[in-house]
Every structure is written in structure tokens, then in C-alpha cells.
Amino acid sequence: xxxxxxxxxxxxxxxxxxxxxxxxxxxxxxxxxxxxxxxxxxxxxxxxxxxxxxxxxxxxxxxxxxxxxxxxxxxxxxxxxxxxxxxxxxxxxxxxxxxxxxxxxxxxxxxxxxxxxxxxxxxxxxxxxxxxxxxxxxxxxxxxxxxxxxxxxxxxxxxxxxxxxxxxxxxxxxxx
Length: 176
Description:
Layout: E1 6-9, H1 17-24, H2 28-33, E2 40-46, E3 51-63, E4 69-84, E5 87-88, E6 93-94, E7 97-104, H3 106-122, E8 127-136, E9 145-153, E10 161-172
Antiparallel strand pairs: 1-10, 2-7, 2-9, 3-4, 3-8, 4-7, 5-6, 9-10
């Protein structure tokens, strides 16, 4: 029997309505207007979890009206790492976190430019799925609960918007 861990996002994952509307209303002009040198990704994990900052990728998946699917992966480089102290007030409580900010690698910027040109070939997708592939530095203890926020910023003039907000990651060892 293997001692593998399964990571899964619990049902309490929240994708804010404003993020869903932003992605659903995105069209070719919006994609063409993105300057890949300005794209930023921010991942925040509850303490004690830490990210492995190598091989982090922004992944764009599209389902098209002709039932075809496309996927693009862009390697990210870490540009900032912060430890955020816990906050406890009468109205809110936030645990300690590690926050990581990323940008496209130089090669990914060129690849994104190619994607922008090919986007028009199949027209506006019927479904978008943008996510970030990442790895943890250390496997959490069995049953340990972690929370992650995944945010995206498409230009310097815009604020970050959530791809995932307060997503719970649980570890489970099925061989026990």
C-alpha cells in the first residue's frame, strides 16, 4: 500500500461573483489589451504552509463552441514573498499567512503574445478556466487544513481579482 496524500479543494471554495462576471465578459479585445509584462499572480497560504516557488504556472483552459478545448501554461517567476501576521478584531479573524507574488518569465511573455494572436482563430470561448499550478515545500500533516487565496492582476491600472478565495486544502491518507 502506498502512503500517498490526496489534496482536494473543499466545497467551501469561493469564487466571488465579480470575478465570474469579469471572466465571462472578457472578449478578444480584452485579451489583446493585456500586456504580459504587467500580469501578476498572488498566492496566499495559511501558516505554516509554504510554496515551492519553482515551476509555478498560470494555466488558461478554454472550451470552445465547436467542442474543442485548448490549454496554455505560462511559467511564473517569484518577485515578492511576505509573511503576514494574524489579525484579530471584533469583526474579523485572519491567521498568519505566506504571500507570494509572481510575474511571467521572459519566455512566457513571448508565449502569451502568441496566444493573444491565436485567440481570434476560434472566437470567444464558451467556458474559461484560469488557475495556477503550484507545489508546497513540505507535505502537510495528515488531516491538516490549509487555506489558499489565488489572485490575478491583468494590468498595473487594475486591482487583483480572485480566482479562488479561502479555498480549503485538506490532506487525507486513504491507506489508513
